[in-house]
Structure formats: structure tokens, C-alpha cells
Amino acid sequence: MMKKMIEKMNSKTICIALFVGFPLILMLAICLGRDRSISANENRVLKTRSDIKYDFFDGELQDDLENYLSDQFPMRDRLKGAETGMKLRLGAGSIGGAYIGHGGRLFQKILDSDVDKEKCVRYAARVNRIAEQTGIETYVMYVPSAGISLRNSLPYGAPMYDYDSLYAALTKELGSVHMIDLRKALSGVPEYYYATDHHWTAKGAAQAYYEWRAAHGEESSNENAPEIFTVSERFRGTLWSRVPSESIGYEKLQAPRVPDGITVEADGRETELYDYSALQTKDKYNFFEGGNHGLLTLTNPDVAEERTIVILKDSFANSFLPYIVNDYSKIIMVDERYAFIDVAQIAVESNADEIAVIREIVSAG
Amino acid sequence: MVFSSAVFLLIFLPVVLLVYYAVPDRVRNPVLLVSSLLFYGWGEPVYILIMLFSTVFDFSNGLMLEWLDRSGKPDRRKWVLVLSLVGNLGMLGFFKYTDFLISSVNVLTGQGFDLLGIALPIGISFYTFQTLSYTIDVYRREIKAQHNILDFGMYICMFPQLIAGPIVKYRDIERQLRNRRLNSDRICAGIFRFTLGLGKKVLLANSLGMVWDEISAQNGKTAALTALIGAAAYMLQIYFDFSGYSDMAIGIGKMLGFDFLENFDYPYESVSVTEFWRRWHISLGSWFREYLYIPLGGNRRGLPRQMLNLLIVWSLTGLWHGAGWNFVVWGLYFFALLAVEKLFWLEKLKKAPAVVGRIYTLLAVLVSWVIFACDDIAAAGRYILSMVGANGFADAASVYYLREYFFLLAIGALLSVSFVRRLVSKELRALPDEGKRFGVKAAVGGVLYIASLLAVIGSTYNPFLYFRF
């Protein structure tokens, strides 16, 4: 057959040769090329040759090879970018789980079906129990997702989860805590959220800080907040990774100025409140404390009155933390996604004056 | 392994084709058998044993039937048939329906028997029906028993149609097991057909599937327009998914020199549900007709008996599709429609304009897919209620979904009927020579292939719906 084909090269045999040869050449190019170990665009480790376990009887071989070929496909990022660009030009309202809002602003698409309401309620009940058991003043500050606060910037009619009913359900469970409601403060101002990331900006976090102060019975105005400075002009966040098109520009990553003398220990290691090395990576939001940590302790010896707070948090709290460093001599932040820590115990043992929950409402589960 | 995976497209298929074309004729069946076992064993090595048992079991049954004929004991042949039926259906029943049975007993009696958690061997519903067709046909003396276990094994395990059909009857490819036509025309036709199927699956079905997933996850709380968009998306998804898979199977078959029968014939242009089932999953319909409906007496024993036969066939058709009560209800739903059509409705439809029949059929099938897709019947009920306006007829979200998915749905709808194919065929015929026609097809195929490959690489969203069966 092969011999005959060579003798009679016509368009059909060329077509067959291409169908058989092209994928093989592609596969060889992948296998002989140098593996990329990390995809900065996607914020994840890529599958490399050394990760593959060549055991036919192990079901994982299939996934390993499939992921390897996909992850190491030539020009993967560029092809994904081109595909995304094409979808944007065709007017797609959502790509890869992100809404494309007005002016190209990206929003995390979170529907009611994505929210585990029961889990959120259980979590709220647990926080309430901690407040009751320890008798420590407890504050809960749920952060509305960008798509909730900036509903008018979403594509018309784009569904989002029902924040109000979720908030009401959780508030019912949280009878023994002070609720800090951010809905009004963050509503309708695009610059309070990043356009390419799901987090709030330094300005958004500042608004939350004013509400925080008000809830603590303190004066609340712009004068109380520190100055904001630009950390990087070339920030593209996690939502951009879902919609990786060059047509979407960079934005500024900003942070409030903080005093010197603060020490930070994260998971047993000394670290910095602002991690400048993160600015050299794609995930620049890790500038704040170098990312998430199971247990982070911040000490500010310059605070006159000794005051300790234990914070249960997600990554929204990372950029909020700099605002409160002058208000507490010791801040203990616990991220339960990264560590199993008995919060009540740690609050009692550290003689905490306050406990707080700072997290996006849908992650509170 | 699935067709729409990088491993299949970049390694398995080209390597198998290369080896298959390079070796002499007589080695091709063993090559195909070995590659099919690799294909099957790739994901679930353990289940190869079940498939091999099934192969050896029915190969032996065939030989036994023949031997009983030769040795003058034809009256004992029926016991071999019974053995084959019990063995094959018992195995299918054990793997597919045990947990369903236990959970049904638990619900009915309030008991708490533990489920066994048996994993379903991929494709068991398909290859069981293939092996059964073989034994039954040998029993009926319509075909001779196969004496070469490698050839028979290759028929059962052949990777193109192994895991999602079409259900190829032994007698339809008996001659092709030994005598296949392989030339560049047929191989190219196969490549083109395969590429069309791949495009249907990864470019259309997967995108449509995401629409359905998103809307159905809202648990029947949407406005009617949103619910209809979701159901229409699923209706198109299941068509492109399944017919795409059949196209790929038929295409690979052609590349290897086989001719498999067609499995779909533009079912969504049917003017009645009766016609729909003649054009949808044709190989399954014809299997049930030939090996169950007609042996039960078909329509030859009076109307009440015909209705009973239909009830049996459609209950089992429902169950074949999945071990769940929604599938039983789905089967019974079609029984009711087909019974009403046979009783009087079909006659009325014949007199009405075709568009009436088309709209009725589309709506009837649309509802059926909601029952099919929703794992529990209450969820299907809620969804159907939302389709008729239980939560209002349209809202802002409906406008969003309509704007977002209108083109996808429109393209899907256009390609699900024969209009585009007829138009393209006409234009192609108008071209002056075969070379130009081939050039156009190759260009379209090439673009489709690259786009599909990129979609496979770029997407982790790649489940084949029909793997559940």
C-alpha cells in the first residue's frame, strides 16, 4: 500500500499523508521540544514529561498524557489568545466563566447554582458559635463580588447569584456578631474593583475600611486612610487568565502606604507585608503578603495601645490588611483553606480583643 | 480513550493508520484487534477481561450452535441461545442495573441495602447487543458461525464503534472481516467524514452543552424563554454529540476499509415521532425491531398485543439508555406518543401540512430530551413547567441568553437539517471537475480539523454523553 501510494502521488494520497503525518509531526515536536513547567497566564504548573507515570494499568496515564500534550502544545498561549480575541470580536458576553462587561471589564460569573448556600450558612453558624463561646467582640464583613456591586456594568441581563437573599440568610445565623454591610459603599463605582481581576482595588478596600471604622464607632473619612501609591502599571489579574487576549490592556496595581517597623510571620517564616518579588511574576496580587497563608501574624510595635485581632479571611483580606496595621498591635490572620486551625482556641490563647471575618460572601463555605 | 482527545488525534489514530496501511492484508485484522484492545484498555484495563469473556463466550456459542446442527441435535440449539441470552444480559444487568435495582428496592420498601458501587464498563451496552445479534443470527441460521477467533474478536472489539455505536450487526460486516476494499478515494471519504464528526462534537456539541449545563443548573427557576433556550441547546447538543460520534466511527471504518450502516438521517426534520425513531440511532431501533419487537409478534397479533409489544420494547429502550427512572419514563413517554400515532394521530398528520408534523415532532422530542437529561423526574417536571411559563415567559436573563447564544443555536439548527448539505452538494456538483470538488472538500476538512484540534487542546470540557450507556 505504502509503495503504491508513493508511486501514485496525487491529491488524495497527499491528503492521506497529511492526515497521518501532520499529527505525528506535531506530537514529535511536542515530545522532542523543551517542556515548559509553568504557565504564567494560567497561574498553574504545567504537566511535563517527568510527571508522566508510564504504567498502562494505571488509569492516570491517560490523563497524564492528555494533559501533557495539551499543556505542551506549540504556541499554546498564543493560540488561546487568538481564539479569545476572535470570540471577543464576535461579541461574546462570556468566556471561560467570566463575563465581558462594559468597556471590556471582566467579571467572575457566579450563579446561584455555583453557590453552596447550605455550606455558607453552616460556616456563618460556626462563626456565631465562636463569638458566643469566646465572648470576644466579633465582626463579619462579607465582600460583595464585583458583578454584584457593578451590576450595571455586566452585559444586559447577565445572571449573577442573589447576594441579598444570601446575605439575609447568613445574617440570620450571625445574631451574636456585628455585621459590616458593604453593599452601599462598594456599589456602582467601577474603580473599586479591578477590571481584569476579581478582587477589590486599593480604593475599594479603602471604602471597606471606612465602613470598618464606622462599625467600630470611630470617625470615618478619607483623612483616616493612608495614601495610595501605584505598585505596578502592568497588572493583569486572574480573570484575564480566563480571557487571555492582548486586546485587554494592563491596569494599575495599587496599595496604601504603610509605616516601617512592621514584622510579618507567615506559616512559621518571616516575610514582608509587601512582597516586591511578586511583581516580577504574573500573579502580582501576591504583592500583598506574598499571597495566601494558613497562619500569618503581623506585629506593629508602634501602636500605642496593645490590641489583638484574629481575622478569618480569604484573599480579599490580603489587600485590606495594610489599612488596619495602625489600629492593632497584633493581627493574626487565618486562612482556613490552607490550614486547620482552631480559631476559638487561638483567639483565647492570644487574648484577642476582636475576631473578624473578611471574605467574599460566596467563598464563605 | 475518546476520539476527541489529544492522545487519540495526535498519537493513536495516526500510528494505527500508519501501521495498518504498511502491513500486508493478512496482518491487518490482528493489528486492528490489538489496537482496539489498547484503545479500550487505555482507560479501564480491567474491563478488557469482561469484553474478552463476552467475545469468547459468544464465539463458543456460535460454534456450539453449528456443531449441534451438524451432529443432528437441532432441538438442543435453543438451550445454547438461552445460555447466550442469560450470559450476555446477565452481565449487562449486573454491571448496569444492580445498583439501580437496589436503590429502587430501598425506596419501595424503606430498606437500607448498601449499593455495590459497580462501575459501568464503557460500551458494554453496545458490544453486548453486537454479540447477541451474532448468536441470534447463527441460531436463526441466517449466518454461519465464525471459526476464526481473531476475526470474531476484531468484530466485537473494533475500536471505531466499540464504545458509542453504531451497533454493527455481524451479518452486515461478515464479508468485510475478510474482504475489504481499501483505496485512496475511500480513505479520503473516511477522513472527511471523521473530520465532520469531530467538528460536530468539539465545536458544536461541547459549546451547546455548556449552555444547557448553565441553564439546567438553575433548577427550573428560569423564565420560559430561558428554559426553552436551554432545552433547545441540549436537543442540538445530543444530536451533534451522538451523530458526530457516529460520523467519526463511520469515517474511521472507511479509513480501515469497512462500510458501517448509517446511524442518523436528519431526525429533526421528521414529521412524526414514528419517523423520528426511524432516523435517530437507526442501529438501535433496528436492533430492537429485529430481535425483540418482531419475535414478540410485532403488529401481526392484533392491536392489543401490538400495544403490549410496543410497551415492552419502549420500556427496555428507555432502560437501555440508562439505569434510572427518568430513562424508564422517557421510554414510556415515547411508547405513549408512538401508540397514539399508531392508533389515529399518524393518519391525521399525513393529511396535515408537513410543517404541522414537524413542529409537533420537534416539541415532543424537545420535552423528551428534558426528561432524558434530568437525572431525577421531579427536576424534569420543574424544568418542563418552567418551559411553559411557570416562572414567567421572559426576563432580563432570557434576553442575555438569547443574545449570547442566538448564533450558536441558529447554526446548530441549520446544520441539524439536510438543507445545508443539499445546498453544498448542489454547489459541489456544479464545479467543473472532480479535482476542484476534492480541493474544496479538503480545504473545508483541513480548517475543521485544525479548529477542532485547537478546541480539544484548549478545552477540558469534553465529556461524551453516550458513554453513560
Short description:
The complex is a heterodimer of chains A (365) and B (469). With 365 residues, chain A is of the alpha/beta class. Chain A is built from twelve helices and 15 strands.
Attribute tags:
heterodimer, A: 365 residues, alpha/beta, 2 domains, 8-stranded mixed beta sheet, 3-stranded antiparallel beta sheet, elongated, B: 469 residues, mainly alpha, 18 helices, 72% helix, globular
Strand content of chain A: 15-25%
Question: What is the tally of beta strands of chain A?
Answer: 15
Distance between the termini of chain A: 62 Å
Question: Average pLDDT value of chain A?
Answer: 88
The major beta sheet of chain A can be summarized as:
8 strands, mixed
Give the H and E element order of chain B: HHHHHHHHHHHHHHHHHH
| Uncertain ranges of chain A | none
**What coarse outline of chain B follows from CA principal-axis ratios?**
globular
In the residues of chain A, how many domains can be counted?
A: 2
**Biggest interface, CB < 8 A:** A-B, 45 and 52 residues
Summed up, the domain count of chain B is 2
In the sheet with the most strands of chain A, the strands line up as 7-6-15-13-14-12-10-11
List the quaternary state of the chains: heterodimer
Helix content of chain A: 25-40%
Structural class of chain B: mainly alpha
**What coarse outline of chain A follows from CA principal-axis ratios?**
elongated
Give the DSSP E fraction of chain B (strand runs of 2 or more residues): under 5%
Report the radius of gyration of chain A as a whole number of Å: 25 Å
Our count of helices of chain A gives 12
Number of helices of chain B: 18
Q: Topology as H/E string of chain A?
A: HHEEHHEEEHEHHEHHEHEEEEEHEHE
